[in-house]
């Protein structure tokens, strides 16, 4: 095991800390993702808020434990609020997570992601196509679903981490987390999760909750993905389809106990 | 029992009236709450509509049986539409419900809630932190989840009701409903309901449906909360987590029959 | 059987084609419908994207397999984006579906629907009240739920199809699909589906997915409605309420196999 690899006990400690602290997570996320993100955060023990008006986003970011900015559904007003809120987060040392949904699909998205990147997100989470596009490599994404595999994006993720100072997570069949020096793989989840909308966005939201309470953001990110993957894998057992998976995931996340996390964490 | 306390038979009559009339409930509510609010209204027998454009909100309010204004996710255009629609509702005697989500958390929210309050909502529903903040007391809310208990807010609710002429509901472990003269407690629900996003918003939406068909708004509000609490408590039986609770709540609300309501109503 | 009536084998071939191609479906749809629409599209095998900013809607429409425009929740910016995207779709021969939610309820809605109609949608799907209103007949709709039956709207649908060149679908207890020359009835579904919000919007979204991969849009529309109705009817078996129905619908849609489609399709 690579030195610095989070142990199952670290993952449990991180989840326990989220539950105990109930961190306020400020989300500026897309319309499709709001419901699942809020419910996943509540099931994980955090306290979600969705605040995007330019008149209040910056003020609200200042009282949050973490900020999650997801560019899934954009508009000029929202982009302005994202930049305002991210600036406050950066200036005050509040960790903020960038989810560059479908970056590369339109020039507006690419420009917005680039402007946000300049505000130094603490964590970046995307699928392989998005991370490749963000790193300037040749993403071949179509819309929001990845057409590249995580492993293709590993090099791009490392470069992106080194260049930006962020922890970068590429999620897919196997998740990869890197800070440019350390790099781990997080196994878990289930293919059916890709048939539930906004599951990747929910992963970003949960990462925000963990980043709010765990100082080591590399650990926070790996732990968040491990926990969500574990809940998803358990939810998928005998699930006939994505409808069942979605609600069971929330139940499993709510019920995860120490033994299950210690036994089920797969970080290497 | 205090005179004027709604009896179980009143609660059932109110639910039956919602189902028979299928009132059109106009919601200007936050993005996170729209799905659950619409589904709870449909499960209760009402007909929900979400209409927030300034070009049509006022016109639409005029054809609705009730209006629900929820400030969860704000923007200048929406605030203008909220004020337009509430003005129409007030002028035409259409009952309207104010849900002051996270009032006190930012100055924009506090200002907006104050402007809406001046348009004389028929009912105000919030958690303890929100009612305290709205009444000018020292709310200690963080985001949308209450950090105060309902009982702390009882005095504030009474003052708010007297000052505004509205029925005020403080929801939490025990709900309190007051019109400044009468005051009742509504028991029911389950702690797991707080782990499902927008459950409070859904309570406001259902209150709108009951206010559309029951003239006595004190009764309408207590009955709406009793019905939702009863459905929630039944949904929580053996529920492993919030995922299950959410869909079962809709089933239970849809299935509630006279015997169950008469037996399960807890208003005192 | 009328010549040109889609056979069960055609319906299965169409669903199989959606699953194999995973078409990118660009939705500009209302806030309430986004979650269910995206999940229904994923369960059907398509790849949904929700993109509504004026800065990117037209560009995105150009890379999509189909466009779905739903006027459920309007704002001036969105209407502009809808018109931009529909223009691109029309000019490039990308099939686009119009869902005229609650047209007739406000003048803003009626005006917007009329502007969109001028951009020649390939398919129009609405409930009876909406189709009557769109055809200029006397819709008596209240909000988004139909107060007319499908059969009342059959003549209006035929006229609308002839006038616009679109395939027109009127959904309700029995769905009717016509292109002005051919006309079929699609049986299936369950009354409980009307107690789940945005089910009609989801039908429009699925129609978009089928229109992206089946050249004959009359067949594509009938097949989409047959598939959704079949999944809904199966989901409703022993369902205690709308909560259960909603998630089971996604499971059933995901699981539909050839034998079930061949046996369960009811187009006449």
Automatic annotation (TrEMBL), chains A, B, C:
Name this protein carries in UniProt: Hydroxyethylthiazole kinase
Source organism superkingdom: Bacteria
Keywords on record: ATP-binding, Kinase, Magnesium, Metal-binding, Nucleotide-binding, Thiamine biosynthesis, Transferase
Binding site for ATP: 125, 171
A Pfam family matched in the record: HK
Cofactor dependence: Mg(2+)
Positions of transmembrane segments: none
Enzyme Commission code(s) on record: 2.7.1.50
Organism from which the protein derives: Phytoactinopolyspora alkaliphila
Pathway: Cofactor biosynthesis; thiamine diphosphate biosynthesis; 4-methyl-5-(2-phosphoethyl)-thiazole from 5-(2-hydroxyethyl)-4-methylthiazole: step 1/1
Main enzyme class: transferase
InterPro entries noted in UniProt: Hyethyz_kinase, Ribokinase-like
Family under the similarity heading: Belongs to the Thz kinase family.
């Amino acid at each position: 095991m690579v030195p610095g690899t989070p142990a199952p006990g670290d993952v449990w400690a991180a989840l326990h800390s989220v539950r105990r602290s109930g961190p306020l997570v400020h989300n500026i996320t897309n319309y499709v993702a709001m419901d699942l993100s809020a419910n996943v955060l509540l099931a994980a023990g955090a306290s979600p808020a969705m605040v995007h008006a330019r008149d209040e986003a910056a003020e609200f970011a200042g009282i949050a434990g973490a900020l999650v900015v997801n560019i899934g559904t954009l508009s000029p007003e929202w982009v302005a609020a994202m930049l305002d809120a991210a600036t406050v987060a950066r200036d005050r040392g509040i960790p903020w997570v960038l989810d560059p949904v479908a970056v590369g699909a339109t020039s507006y998205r690419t420009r917005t992601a680039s402007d946000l990147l300049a505000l130094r997100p603490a964590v970046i989470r995307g699928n392989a196509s998005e991370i490749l596009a963000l790193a300037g490599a040749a993403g071949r994404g179509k819309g929001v679903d990845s057409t590249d595999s995580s492993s293709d994006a590993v090099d791009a993720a490392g470069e992106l981490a080194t260049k930006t100072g962020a922890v970068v997570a590429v999620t897919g069949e196997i998740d990869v987390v890197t800070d440019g020096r350390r790099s781990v793989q997080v196994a878990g989840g289930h293919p059916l999760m890709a048939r539930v909308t906004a599951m990747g966005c929910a992963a970003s939201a949960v990462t925000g909750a963990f980043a709010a309470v765990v100082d080591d953001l590399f650990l926070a990110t790996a732990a968040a993905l491990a926990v969500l993957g574990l809940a998803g894998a358990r939810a998928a057992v005998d699930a006939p389809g994505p409808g069942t998976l979605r609600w069971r995931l929330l139940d499993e996340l709510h019920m995860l106990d120490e033994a299950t996390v210690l036994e089920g964490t797969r970080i290497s």
